[in-house]
Design brief:
4-stranded antiparallel β-sheet, 19 strands, mainly beta, about 60% strand
Length: about 230
């Protein structure tokens, strides 16, 4: 028996679970049901627009008078679908505005926009052939600044810009993390009008005590990178 996925939204609180159908309002919650679909991620854009990443689309709703009203769907391309084995996990998902979204899975990233005919209108972001272990991204004036981590020991930051003729993002400037880091994770990203910042952690050798006891120790550091 198929169950609907239900999203409850309240000021400062979100959750979802199985077992409800239809659309309703319960005890001050905005409630929306997604029939026979999986809720893979959520993102609030500004104060009004709410994105929900589903198996093959992104639902975009707008808050009006404590109700969540659908304004459209963003169709995704196959590269960022939930795969046939049920791996629907997202590494990154953000609404860029009320009609476009950035979405990343371990094998690919895409920037997709809303269309009336619900056919995918996406720009591919070409990454390495290995699977990503974590990724964070920001978007500034249609350019993507993305931090990628492979196998938790190979990390870099890339500045990408769109090529409209081929509908893809190409690499511009980039930087690589020091090679003595491992167990690298990136967990969030945000931008100002001038800079982009990435929040994460990494383990790296601490050699400060080596002259005294001839041993190396690993420190786990939380980093805010610009």
């Amino acid at each position: 028996m198929a169950c609907d996925k239900v999203l409850h939204i309240r000021a400062g609180h979100c959750c979802h679970h199985r077992g409800f159908s239809g659309t309703d309002k319960i005890e001050g919650f905005a409630v929306h049901a997604f029939k026979d679909d999986s809720i893979r991620g959520i993102h609030l854009y500004g104060n009004d627009f709410f994105g929900v990443a589903l198996n093959k689309t992104v639902y975009v709703g707008q808050f009006k008078n404590d109700n969540l009203t659908e304004i459209g769907r963003i169709p995704l391309n196959e590269k960022v679908y939930a795969d046939a084995h049920g791996d629907s996990s997202l590494l990154e998902f953000k609404l860029i505005d009320a009609s476009s979204a950035l979405i990343c899975v371990p094998r690919a990233c895409s920037m997709c926009s809303m269309r009336i005919d619900l056919t995918p209108d996406c720009y591919d972001i070409h990454l390495k052939f290995e699977k990503l272990s974590s990724v964070s991204a920001t978007v500034v004036k249609n350019n993507v600044i993305i931090r990628t981590v492979y196998n938790k020991d190979d990390a870099s930051i890339h500045y990408l810009f769109p090529t409209h003729q081929f509908k893809e993002y190409v690499f511009g400037k980039w930087s690589i993390d020091p090679f003595n880091r491992n167990e690298i994770e990136t967990v969030a990203a945000f931008s100002t009008a001038i800079h982009s910042y990435f929040v994460g952690s990494a383990k790296q050798p601490n050699t400060s005590l080596f002259p005294f006891n001839h041993k190396n120790y690993d420190n786990v550091n939380w980093n805010l990178q610009q």
